Amino acid sequence: MRTALVIGTGLIGTSAALALASRGVQVHLTDHDPAQARTAAALGAGTDSLPEEPVDLAVVAVPPAHAAASLAEAMRGGLARGYLDVTSVKGGIRRELETLGCDLSGYLGTHPMAGRERSGPLAATADLFEGRPWVLTPTHDTDTEVLNLALELVSLCRAVPVLMDADAHDRAVALVSHTPQLVSSMVAARLRDADETAVRLCGQGIRDVTRIAASDPRMWLDILAANPGPVADVLAAVATDLDATVRALRALESADEDKRADGTAGIDDVLRRGNAGRARVPGKHGAAPAAYETLTVLIGDQPGELARIFADAGRAGVNIEDVRIEHATGQQAGLIQLMVEPAAVASLAAALRDRGWAVRQ
Fold first, then answer.
1. Comparing C-alpha atoms, which of 131, 158, 173, 136 is closest to residue 285?
2. Co-location of 151 and 236 in the same domain
3. Residue 296 Cα distances to 289, 293, 315, angstroms
4. Same structural domain for residues 31 and 158?
5. 344 φ, ψ to 5°?
6. Domain count, the chain
């Protein structure tokens, strides 16, 4: 791939352009907002001038509601040898292109499974896709050259290609991406009118659950409007669990011993099914989740503290597998949770204590 055209310079489009440009591809940028394309160009993502001849690959990175129209316009203009989109839904866009009478041999629907709560070119990074799955949905009509160009794009962005059927993809993201966004928003919405005393008690659990609730509502309206059926199906199943859980909790309030026993069994069931589902979420390098031990350390909120604790762990010969930070309310300190292999816990705890850290196991 020598040349590319990125249509839409938001987070995903600009990040892909930055990755391509950093690896020697001549990238042209266009956007319905010229100022946004100029911003992306100023960041080093390419040039905001249109190509004078067809490029190797056109990457359409616009909201799902506009993707088919943008693709059709690019195809009719003969702007590239191959065309793909990077929207989060796939089946509907392909059907729209069929309705518009487009030649689908030069098109491939894709979806990089990466993103951030922030949007726009200023949130973009060249390494956004590194190590992340990038779904490709070829059909028997897809030209081999276009598939190869898509695979090259994925490789240049250092992502991991995953081949799927378009509709199977839409059902999958409804479960692992779109429904979690709505559930996170629903939980966060409970905080809007909550008493300030309750909000001050927010800990890591509520922060984890509501993190993605900070996402741009306009972006998610576009995504959910393009995949409503599969998301509604998953939410209906969640609603069934919610109803059963509410009944179980009400039963625990009862004076009747049998009802309380039923309530306990109902809560136990949903918690254990949650354990089983969480255990299937891929862990490090896509492998099965490892059973790491957690070492908790009090850490000051000063520059260099994180670097110091990681360096001390390195000197102890221990690899930090994962990390979380919980900030202390009203204090210039917090708790850092270091996830390590179980066999390394004792030696790391001893090493950190020797270096003056307040370790809590």
1. 131
2. no
3. 20, 10, 18
4. yes
5. -95, -5
6. 3
User: Over 280-330, what HEC string results?
Assistant: CCCCHHHCCCCCCEEEEEEEECCCCHHHHHHHHHHHCCCCCCEEEEEECCC
Token pair 């490029």 in the structure block, residue: 55
Whole-angstrom CA distances from 110 to 251, 266, 324 are 47, 41, 32
HEC secondary structure over 226-266: HCHHHHHHHHHHHHHHHHHHHHHHHHHCCCCHHHHHHHHHH
Query: Percentage of residues in the chain with pLDDT exceeding 70?
Result: 96
pLDDT of residue 286: 54
96 and 8 share one domain: yes
Average of per-residue pLDDT values in the chain: 92
Which one of 148, 164, 180 terminates a domain?
A: 164
End-to-end CA gap in the chain: 52
Closest among 216, 208, 213, 207 to 182, alpha carbons compared: 213
Q: What is the CATH number of the domain that holds 346?
A: 3.30.70.260
Nearest-angstrom CA–CA distance, 160 and 150: 12
pLDDT at 287 over 60: no
Is 288 domain-assigned? no
CA-atom Rg of the chain in angstroms: 24
What is the helix, strand, coil percentage profile of the chain, to 5? Answer: 50, 15, 30
Average pLDDT estimate for 99-119: 90
Q: Token digits for 52?
A: 């004078």
Concatenated DSSP letters of 3-70: EEEEE--SHHHHHHHHHHHHTT-EEEEE-SSHHHHHHHHHTTS-BSSPPSS-EEEEEE-S-HHHHHHH
Confidence of residue 117 (pLDDT cuts 50, 70, 90): low
Report pLDDT digits (tens) over 238-268: 999 999 999 999 999 999 999 999 999 999 9
Residue 313: pLDDT over 80: yes
Same domain, 205 and 72: no
- 324 occurs within a structural domain: yes
Bridge partners, residue 133, by sequence: 160
